[in-house]
Specification:
The complex is a heterodimer of chains A (257) and B (259).
Chain A: H1 2-9, E1 13-23, E2 31-42, E3 47-51, H2 58-65, E4 73-78, E5 81-82, E6 92-95, H3 107-117, H4 122-135, H5 151-163, E7 169-173, H6 181-196, E8 200-204, H7 208-214, E9 217-222, E10 225-231, H8 232-239, H9 243-250
Parallel strand pairs in A: 3-8, 3-9, 6-7, 7-8
Antiparallel strand pairs in A: 1-2, 1-4, 4-5, 9-10
Helix pairs in contact in A: 3-4, 4-5
Chain B: H1 2-16, H2 19-37, H3 44-79, H4 83-87, H5 93-127, H6 132-159, H7 163-180, H8 184-190, H9 193-205, H10 215-219, H11 227-252
Helix pairs in contact in B: 1-5, 2-3, 2-5, 3-5, 3-6, 3-7, 5-6, 5-11, 6-7, 6-11, 8-9
The chains are: A alpha/beta (257), B mainly alpha (259).
């Protein structure tokens, strides 16, 4: 009961005044600002769409959340744990935009390796591997080396590894990019299923129709700053147009009505 | 330790699935087998020469395996971007470095045991005695030597951008220490003033890899070394390995990794 209460009151993901600067490659400029004073909260059980044009700072923010990049200032936490601590990533699953897995391993070995990292006990580990392989429909190819897989299959390996620890928060970086319509439908189904299970999903995407369908709340980032945040239905009502048009207005490519 | 061993397991798995490793491994094993089995008219000098050549080949091969394997670990993870799904899991950067180190070191240990086993079985069967303790000391010191080399190469892999430049520089540094390390002190003593002090400081700062070269012990069937010296050299090796891995972590821990 106490655990359930803590889970409810704690924000799954919290970003406070996040600022990220990189050394600039341009002459006369010392640093380049990637994210500027970002504040964001994601609640338990939400499907949160993190939107913005290319170069808006979405991937940089995700990189901070995953510990790949250090913030210049500000703070970020996952389940109340500072993202700089590896333990913050114990309850998350991450699917990168492209497939980056050990090509010399087969899917079963890869999942076993990742499951071991999450300290999943051995009998449970095998059960989880079977379950995720069934979910992404890769059971028959589980012994094949990943390098022999098609792009779609590799993307499904990505989903399988992201789900191996039965995560409470799933971070997906453009999960449907490069997938065929069937693959996209499958990803949407999985997100929907996770939502029904009460899991939290935080994902970036350029497929705004898809975002409108699956997301509870969205945030639109532009030039490193948060421009708008809110429930999809509220935003649609407020702007009197669909999410794509809202997006274009925010980034200045469509005149306000 | 769980994560470190899991990572080490992947390093070993990658190594035995790579073809270039097998080529070097099989080539050295076959040459060791051939050289070790040759005996010219029972002439001891020729036998010793062949044993020396055989051990030199084992040293070069294991050094090449250790350097090339360690040099590619972190850069390959970054280039293939496998580092991103890995570090998105509860793995610290220290565990990543330690896992890579243990994987390379264990793989080199297995390779060493196989090479020395080939060599030992053949030479012992011809010479009708089995100097187990001497062989053990030779293998152990060789393995400690490889630990320092692997840690040095891992440090290079987070400093240099290209794997090839790291491998080349590491090879030159290691061979340089093996050949010139012991003489630096005399050079420093022979020089006057600040230059001499610099050379003496370098002599004390570098890891003395030449201490771990026990080939003569095996070649000439000398009596085994007192275990206290072996323990001292092991401790010295462990300290340098720890120091180099610590430096690797300090460089790598704040490094920005961007997709």
């Amino acid at each position: 009961m106490a655990t359930a209460y803590i889970l409810w009151v704690t924000m799954v993901l919290e970003i406070k005044d996040l600022r990220v600067e990189f050394p600039s490659r341009e002459l006369g400029e010392r640093t380049k600002l990637a994210v500027d004073g970002l504040n964001l909260q994601v609640r338990p059980g939400e499907v949160f769409g993190f939107l913005g044009p290319n170069g808006a700072g979405k991937t940089t923010t995700m990189n901070v959340l995953l510990g790949f990049v250090n913030a210049t200032s500000g703070a970020a936490s996952i389940f109340g744990v500072d993202v700089r601590q590896p333990i913050a990533r114990q309850r998350i699953g991450y699917l990168p935009e492209m497939t980056y897995y050990y090509k010399f391993l087969n899917t079963e070995e890869l999942l076993r390796f990742y499951a071991r990292i999450f300290r999943i006990p051995s009998p449970e580990r095998e059960r989880r591997i079977d379950a995720v392989l069934q979910l992404v429909e890769l059971e028959s190819a589980r012994k094949r080396l990943i390098k022999t897989y098609s792009k779609g299959m590799q993307q499904r390996v990505g989903l399988a590894q992201a789900l191996i620890n039965d995560p409470d928060l799933l971070i997906l970086d453009e999960p449907t990019s490069g997938l065929d319509p069937l693959g996209r439908m499958k990803v949407r189904e999985i997100i929907q299923r996770l939502k029904e299970q009460g899991k939290t999903v935080f994902f970036s995407s350029h497929e705004l129709g898809e975002v409108e369908t699956v997301c509870d709340r969205v945030a639109i980032l532009h030039e490193g700053r948060l421009r708008v945040e809110g429930r999809v239905s509220d935003l649609v009502q407020e702007y009197q147009c669909n999410l794509e048009q809202i997006f274009l207005k925010i980034i200045g490519h469509l005149a306000p009505a | 330790m769980n994560n470190i061993f899991a990572l080490a397991g992947v390093v070993i798995k990658e190594l035995y699935r790579r073809k270039d490793f097998y080529v070097l491994f099989v080539m050295t094993a076959v040459v060791s087998l051939l050289l070790g089995s040759v005996r010219f008219f029972n002439d001891d000098k020729i036998v010793r020469f062949i044993k020396a050549a055989c051990l030199l080949l084992i040293w070069i091969s294991t050094l090449v395996i250790a350097i090339t394997t360690a040099a590619r670990q972190i850069p390959a993870e970054r280039e293939s971007r496998t580092i991103f799904p890995l570090l998105a899991k509860p793995v610290s950067r220290w565990e990543l470095i330690a896992g890579k180190f243990f994987g390379c070191w264990l793989a080199c240990g297995i390779t060493l045991v196989v090479f020395y086993l080939f060599f030992g079985l053949l030479t012992s069967s011809y010479e009708h005695h089995w100097p187990v303790a001497t062989f053990f000391q030779g293998i152990w010191m060789h393995w400690v030597f490889l630990a320092i080399v692997i840690a040095l190469v891992l440090l290079g892999s987070v400093v240099f951008t290209a794997q090839s430049s790291n491998a080349t520089i590491s090879f030159i540094v290691v061979v340089g220490i093996l050949f010139a390390g012991r003489h630096l002190h005399y050079v420093g003593l022979g020089m006057n003033g600040f230059g001499g002090e610099i050379v003496t400081a370098v002599y004390y700062a570098i890891p003395h890899l030449e201490w771990y070269d026990m080939r003569d012990l095996v070649i000439h069937d000398w009596a085994q070394i007192d275990w206290i010296y072996i323990a001292g050299a092991t401790l010295y090796g462990a300290l340098y390995t720890g120091l180099l891995l610590g430096l690797t972590w300090m460089v790598f821990r704040r490094k920005t990794l961007t997709l």
